[in-house]
C-alpha cells in the first residue's frame, strides 16, 4: 500500500467537516481526527511528518505543497489520485574520463604494435642467437626439446656456447640455417611453440640431443664429462653411453692406472652425431714433428717443446687421446703465426706442421729445383728465351713483377756471364732447401744452400752459399719471390782433374 500519497473525497454539498481517508486502512476520517477510528493509526503524527517533508522539499510553492502533502477538500469533478514526479537534471561526462579512455586505447594500440615487432619470428631468432653467442643467463628459455630425458637449463646449453665461441663463423651459418627452418644436421629446428601474452606467436629452437658412446681399454678407469664423473669401467673393453647431450664442446676424459702410473686420456670433443664414438683408451704414443725451425709445438694447446734448427722435434710417450691435435706457433717480429692443426692417429707418425699461405718444405724443394733448371738453361745457351723450366714455366713467372724484378735481372745477367766466360766449360746448380718459415700472412722465407760446380779446363771449382728467398703467396696456389738476400759463402774448393 502506498503511504506517501493521500486519497481524497469531496464532502457533501451541504458543507461540514472535510472527509479524508486513513492512509493505513483506507476508512473515511475527519480532518480533525487525531487517530483512525477503525485501525487506530496516528493521523496527527502522520500529518505533521508529511507537512515537514513537503516544506523542506519545495519551500517556494505553498500551494503546490498543500496539494502534494496535505489533505484537501474534494472538488466537484470527482475523486482522484495525484502522483507527482521530479525532473532530474542531466550532467555531462567529466573531461578526465574521456582523457583516461583515450590514453588507455593508445596504450593498448602501442603495446600491441610493440609486441607484434618484439615477438616477430626474426626478432625472436636474433635474441636467441645473441643469447647463445654470449652465454646469457636464461639462454635455455630460447630452447625446447621433446626428449623427456633432457632437462634444459643454462648449464645444458653451455657446451653449445663454447663451441660457437671457438668457431664464430659457424654461429653465422647456424643462424642462417635456423632462419630457413632447421640446421643441416637436423639437430636444431626453429619452430612455433605456443603463444606469448595470448596474442603473439612464440618460437623456440627445438633441440634433438645426442647420445655418444665412450670406450676405454682399462678396468677401473673413471670416465668424466666436463669434470663430472659419469661411470667407472669394469672391463678392458668397456663402453658407456653418455647423454642426453645438447650438441657442443665437451671435455671428456678417462683416468686410470697403466703399469703402476696414473694416466689420463682427456680431450675436448665436438659432440653432434648420433652414435658418435669417443676413444678413451689409456696408452702412450710417440711421433716426430717436422716444421719450421724454432717453431713452438703444442699438443691440445699445451706446449711440449720447440723444433730444432732443422725443424724437427721428437715427442715420446705422450698419453694417448682420441683427438690428439698438434699445432705450431712461430714468432716473426712482433707477430705470431699459427700452423694448421694436425690430428695424430697412429704411433710413430711423422707430423708435418704447415702454415696457411706458406709452402711446405717438399713444395719449396720442387719450386727451387725448377727455378734453377730455368737458370741452367740460360747458362747453357746464353739466350734469355730459354729461361723456362721443365714445365715450360718462364723464369720471370717465379718473381713478383716478372721480368722487371731486380732479382730476375740478376739471374739472367749471371747466367749469360757464365756462358760468355771462356774459362768455364759448364756450370751445375744444386739447390738444397733447408727451411721454410712464416713471416706474416701469406708471406714466408725459404732458406736454401746453393752449390755451384764449375768445370774448368783442368779442374773443378765448387762453391756453396746460403741464401734467403723472401716469398709470398699469389693467387690460389701460386708463389712468387720478392727478393733474395744472404749469399754467405759456406765452402769454396778446387779439385784438379
Automatic annotation (TrEMBL):
Regions crossing the membrane: 96-115
Ranges of residues in domain TcaA 4th: 286-355
Domain Zinc-ribbon intervals: 21-43
Region Disordered, annotated ranges: 57-90
Presence of the UniProt keyword Transmembrane helix in the record: yes
Biased composition (Polar residues): 78-88
Keyword Transmembrane helix: yes
Keyword tags: Membrane, Transmembrane, Transmembrane helix
Gene Ontology CC terms: plasma membrane
Stretches with biased composition (Low complexity): 57-67
Endpoints of the signal sequence: none
Listed name of the protein: Zinc-ribbon domain-containing protein
Native source species: Lactiplantibacillus garii
